[in-house]
Amino acid sequence: MRMIVMIIFLVLLGLLAILNRHFLTYPHTLNLGFAEYKDMPVGLMLLAASLIPMLVFYFWASVTKLRAQADTAKLLRDMESLRTSLDSQEGSRFQQLQAHLDRQFAEMQTQALPSSGSASEVASLAAKMDAMKRDLDLQLDQMDDYLKRKLG
Description:
The protein is mainly alpha-helical. It is about 85% helix and about 5% strand. The chain has one domain (about 1-150).
């Protein structure tokens, strides 16, 4: 956007300079206080002097934009490392939960073995637990994909 504005400004300034080339090249006396120059094109010098602040502003704005992009990149790297850390912690918690559920399930299965009616209940509970585990894994994968899309 800045480049477009700068190009438009330069085109308009060039058009103005072309239309007023006689005024810009008309010789004048230039007094700097410590030196005096005769037959200098003061208009052309003023035109050149107006380009200098424009270029300084353009480069200053570019540096500001680059700093903002660097800050954004650093923030995204920090967020990615935090997400990785949280994912690993969450994974260990799920492993602990899975181990606990497996122990509980094994205890329930050993208690339910003598009766055949309880075995079917245990099997249905196991099927429900497997379905819940698949659903939980799916939701975690969806959250992971969402975070990856948002963080880049």
